[in-house]
Design a protein that fits this description.
The protein is mainly α and 209 residues long. 69% of the residues lie in helices and 0% in strands.
């Protein structure tokens, strides 16, 4: 039986339970052949199949990035897709495997950041920031990625700012602490909600301890 027969669309289901269950089984079995079939079906003529495939793939990547990491180029190509579900799904997958394929991810950064800024998806931006953080913790990419991360912190919507500040903690060190603090203190004054300010203040406190 083809792995496609187990997707939600093939089962006439509108929920994600079949896709999540399939991802779990593929991870449990280390089923590389199933992963390959899903990758090859990302351009299936049926958009429902496309969407199910990317869902299963990024669920697999979240649980075991090694199973999908070698397909980073295929995910990168999806960033050009007109199907927005494929775009933010690909970004989710790329975030999941960024630490496994940092060189390839670094080469894609211009496109990743362009998509984050223009596709109108909060999910895509969230995962672009996640990719920057992962690359920013690695010495070969820190110099370029930390300034790009700070740019995201300066320009992102207020709703996302506290989460991005929290996500940035792994890249903040003695060399970058002052710049991050400046951005946090400046933007915190303009946040709408007290809960948002408290989250940022908590991170600032960690930086000064």
């Amino acid at each position: 039986m083809s792995v496609l027969d187990k997707l939600a669309t093939a089962l006439n289901r509108r929920d994600e339970v079949p896709n999540q269950g399939l991802a779990h089984r593929i991870v449990r079995d280390g089923d590389a052949a199933a992963v390959k079939e899903l990758i090859e079906s990302l351009h299936h003529k049926h958009k429902g199949i496309q969407s199910d495939c990317i869902k299963v793939l990024y669920e697999i990547g979240t649980a075991n990035p090694d199973l999908i990491a070698k397909y980073y180029r295929e995910f990168g190509k999806l960033l050009e897709s007109k199907n927005k579900r494929l775009v933010w799904g690909a970004m989710t997958a790329l975030d999941a495997i960024a630490a496994k394929e940092p060189k390839g991810m670094y080469g894609m950064l211009p496109k990743i950041l362009e998509v984050a800024d223009t596709c109108g998806s909060v999910i895509a931006r969230d995962h672009a920031v996640g990719i920057l953080v992962k690359l920013g913790t690695l010495k070969p990419y820190k110099r370029d990625c930390v300034p790009l991360l700070i740019e995201q912190l300066m320009s992102c919507p207020n709703n996302q700012f506290p989460m991005y500040v929290e996500m940035s903690l792994p890249v903040i060190d003695a060399d970058t602490r002052k710049r991050f603090q400046q951005v946090m203190e400046k933007r915190m004054q303009k946040l709408d909600k007290e809960s948002q300010k408290k989250r940022v203040a908590k991170v600032l406190k960690k930086l000064t301890q």
